[in-house]
Amino acid sequence: MNVMKKGMAITLVSSFALLAACGSNTATNSQGAGNATNSAETAAPEQTAAAEPVKIEFWYGLGGNLGDNMKKLIDQFNASQSEVIVQGIVQADYSETEQKLQAAIAANKVPAAVLSANADWARKGYYAELDGMMAAATDLNPDDFVPTFIEQGQVDGKQFFLPMYGTTQVMYYRKDALEKSGIKAEDLTTWEALAAAAAQMTVKEGDKTTFYGWEPMWGRENMMDAVFSKGGSVLSEDGKTVLVDSPEWVETWELFRKWIHEDQIMRIHSGGQGWEYWYKTIDDVMKGKAAGYTGSSGDQGDLDFTQLAAMEQPGWEGVGDGKGKPVANGIMAGIPAKASKEQQEAAFKWLTYFSNTENTAFWSMNTGYIAVRESALEDPEFKAFGEANPQSRVPLMQASHASKPFIDPTGGKITDALTIAADKVQIGNKPAAEALKEAKEAAQKALDAIAK
Q1: SS3 for 321?
Q2: Is the CB of residue 134 less than 8 Å from the CB of residue 159?
Q3: Tens of pLDDT along 235-283?
Q4: What pTM did the predictor assign?
Q5: Which of 42, 137, 198, 334 could form a disulfide with 127 if both were Cys (CB 3.0 to 4.6 A apart)?
Q6: Which CATH number fits domain 54-167+329-399: 3.40.190.10, 3.40.718.10, 3.20.20.30, 3.40.50.2300?
Q7: H and E: helices and strands count for the chain
């Protein structure tokens, strides 16, 4: 789910010329030491005023609790040092931030930092490269960033964006449902085990299911996560061939179809206005109509963890290291290339401050989003918070071995084809092989078109 400063150091140097600087010897010779004393009294030592702080604008599209916590960190940064002053400029959302940035670039009046990232704009030179600043920073360890997040900020092998926070979809379950069936969450490390547990927990009255073992979230994302965990990918390594009809895709999506329509151990809520389907899914679990669901790390503020707990998405039996590889999305910030060098350096200081261990932990604890530094797990406050709220650590642990999000080179036509195919499988009960074959044909046609 997807921030101008202008300032310069002014040094004031004031000095008073010594009286008769060139003729002081003459004055001394003719008038004696008394005149020399007067000259010394008249002269003042060189005085240099302290450099003024660099003032920068940081644009971000956050409101509510997120906006409040962003302001807290901006105020904290400004109070922590005297070199940079950040002025937060709030936009309506991520989209408006990018629209206003586009206008600012055209007008040559850019902010110093922006909570937005656009790979195409980076290639066009609209964003500053950060590799040099990162290499020069003595207090920054790039290896401490969660790999999938820092890598998402790279374009053609160069770092253009820094991760501010992240999000991923994890598993939330009712503790009483598992306990009642004698199931331990730590045993649900594969989709096969989860399906077996869901079947065990499902309650049916005749042909009707009254309690579901699990509820995936409507849409392609959950099923794509499961495909990536099985080793599948959307495109071939050279980016020329669409692979969504491969065995990894067909087998995975067919299992979801079977679990939903034939076994009826899982259910999908679809349709409605806005996020209606999402909250219906959450309500089923909170009201005791389902054992668990797959949802966003950002859901944690809406859940009652006296009843619920969280776990990572599972992997597949015999695949890789056995860990799930669901997508983790990084929310990135960049520095416009048209900002002056002084502005860029000040912006970099602010962005790295926001993402340091203590502050990324603070953001995670107060928003539910993922910390972007692996060292956050060792932050004392975060550790204490995690011990009291173990669900808060799950998204970060999952992100440490997550997949990067798929970037559609066709501008959305491949993802559109997959969205249609997911509806056919999840809602229409269409065999996955047929739905994905149709998706492959539409997606390949779109991909071939941009290659011409």
Answers
A1: coil
A2: yes
A3: 999 999 999 999 999 999 999 999 999 999 999 999 998 889 999 999 9
A4: 0.74
A5: 334
A6: 3.40.190.10
A7: 18, 13
